[in-house]
């Protein structure tokens, strides 16, 4: 990694860098690993490139996309580019290939460093510290702590980002600086910010291996970069401390729009009184008003779901592991006797000693995880393999508490389960 956040390739297996660079510069979308889930990435500055993402995913185009950058310099530079349209500027110089030099519309504006320095000077003249003047100050500490990493922040829209990226939802753009070295290398090699939703077909569990991407989007992508299994396993945390939604009674009150890889507890520890007011956008099953006017559009659709119905058991704090295991067993029996399930997939947490008994005429496929973190890491792959490989006709997941990694994984599970949430 070079000082400006870009990458230099070492070793022999580097063809993927050249290949992804080529496809991305041609405004095609590719499958790309990140530390959370695999993304379906394309040039965020080009409308047609972004349109091809929605088309490949069969995603409703009113659901906005996250824009990925590979350095703070790249993010800042976006605020100094003209409106989208004619130009497709190359951002960064370290990985410039010979064909970039002088190619019309493809070179970074020669005075970009001067523009960035001017912005810093103006900020200092107004009493600021001259650091990242384009980025609202409220985010600076969060960026220092969690970037690169699984945190997405809602920022003002740079005029170079076309409206199609926003899905028609206000004048903000969600940005993320991923930690995965392959994602960072690909972004920095093409020199473009990349719009990238999770690379699943819309409504399916998010992909945490290249094989999942291939399964869902076979034949629709020129390239999928395979870097093994994703570390985190659930998507990034989407944090809004900027839009009007992040104000309550005139006070800044940051809001987690989607729990994810950075936990509520980690964000609530940031310095500053506003982080004591951190809230989580909660799907409210009884409020039709919220259902019709969701704060983040991802809330509207049934999500993350395999084709077998998913049942999730919400744990009660007072119950012991043995009591939980007994309740899981009761639910297995009920799925067989009341719903006629013949093959039941079970995802059990911290129940290593407990042996689940298959009801008569029923087969069990039991998978065990140690804790919430392991559940988050493996849940999407488990949902997929129970469905597609083990062909179960119902999936029962023992849920976890909402603390730390538990919040994100329970958010995904209750959506996958739709209304089959058991207490
Ligand atoms: O970990 C991740 O975030 C992955 C990887 C590929 O980076 N990406 C991902 O993207 O999960 P996607 O498109 O599946 O989810 C984007 C989420 C949606 O819930 C969307 O509504 C929200 O971010 N979002 C995007 N732009 C927004 C904005 N301007 N304001 C509020 N929410 C926004
Ligand atoms: Mg998604």
Explain what this protein looks like in three dimensions.
The chain folds into three domains: 215 residues, DHBP synthase (Alpha-Beta Complex); 63 residues, no CATH class; 113 residues, Rossmann fold (3-Layer(aba) Sandwich), CATH 3.40.50.11030. The protein has twelve helices and 16 strands. A hairpin with a 6-residue loop joins strand 1 and strand 2. Helix 11 runs parallel beside helix 12. The longest helix has 19 residues. About 4% of the residues have low confidence. Threonylcarbamoyladenylate binds next to strand 4, strand 5 and strand 10. Its main location: cytoplasm. GO terms for molecular function: ATP binding; double-stranded RNA binding; L-threonylcarbamoyladenylate synthase; tRNA binding. Its EC number is 2.7.7.87.
Task: Jot down its keywords.
nucleotide-binding, 5-stranded parallel beta sheet, binds threonylcarbamoyladenylate, DHBP synthase, binds magnesium ion, globular, 423 residues, single chain, 3 domains, 9-stranded mixed beta sheet, Rossmann fold, 12 helices
């Amino acid at each position: 990694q070079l000082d400006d956040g870009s990458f230099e390739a070492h070793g022999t297996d580097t063809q993927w860098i050249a290949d992804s660079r080529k496809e991305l510069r041609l405004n095609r979308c590719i499958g790309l690993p990140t530390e959370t889930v695999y993304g379906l990435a394309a040039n965020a500055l080009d409308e047609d490139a972004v349109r091809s993402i929605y088309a490949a995913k069969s995603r409703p185009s009113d659901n906005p996309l996250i824009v990925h950058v590979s350095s703070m310099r790249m993010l800042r530079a976006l605020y100094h580019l003209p409106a989208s349209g004619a130009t497709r500027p190359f951002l960064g110089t370290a990985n410039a290939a010979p064909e970039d030099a002088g190619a019309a519309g493809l070179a970074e504006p020669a005075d970009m460093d001067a523009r960035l320095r001017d912005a810093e000077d103006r900020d200092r003249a107004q009493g600021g510290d001259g650091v990242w003047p384009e980025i609202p100050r409220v985010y600076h500490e969060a960026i220092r702590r969690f970037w690169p990493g699984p945190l997405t922040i809602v920022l003002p829209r740079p005029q170079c980002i076309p409206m199609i990226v926003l899905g028609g939802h206000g004048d903000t753009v969600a940005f993320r600086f991923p930690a995965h070295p392959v994602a960072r290398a690909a972004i920095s090699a093409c020199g473009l910010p990349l719009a990238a939703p999770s690379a699943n077909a819309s409504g399916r569990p998010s992909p945490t291996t290249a094989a999942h991407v291939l399964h869902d989007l076979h034949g629709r992508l020129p390239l999928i970069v395979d870097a093994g299994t994703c570390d985190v396993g659930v998507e990034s945390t989407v944090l809004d401390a900027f839009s009007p939604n992040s104000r309550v009674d005139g006070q800044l009150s940051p809001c987690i729009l989607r729990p994810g890889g950075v936990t509520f507890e980690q964000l609530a520890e940031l310095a500053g009184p506003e982080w004591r007011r951190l809230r989580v956008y909660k799907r409210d099953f009884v409020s039709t008003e919220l259902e019709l006017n969701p704060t983040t559009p991802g809330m509207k659709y049934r999500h993350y779901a395999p084709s077998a119905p998913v049942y999730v058991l919400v744990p009660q704090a007072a119950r012991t592991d043995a009591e939980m295991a007994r309740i899981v067993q009761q639910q297995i029996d009920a799925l067989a006797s009341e719903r006629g399930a013949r093959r039941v997939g079970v995802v059990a947490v911290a129940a290593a000693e407990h042996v689940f008994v298959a009801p008569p005429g029923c087969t069990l496929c039991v998978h065990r995880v140690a804790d919430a973190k392991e559940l988050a890491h493996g849940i999407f792959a488990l949902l997929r393999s129970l469905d597609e490989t083990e062909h179960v006709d119902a999936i029962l997941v023992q849920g976890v508490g909402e603390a730390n990694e538990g919040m994100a994984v329970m958010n995904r599970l209750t959506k996958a389960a739709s209304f089959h949430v058991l207490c």
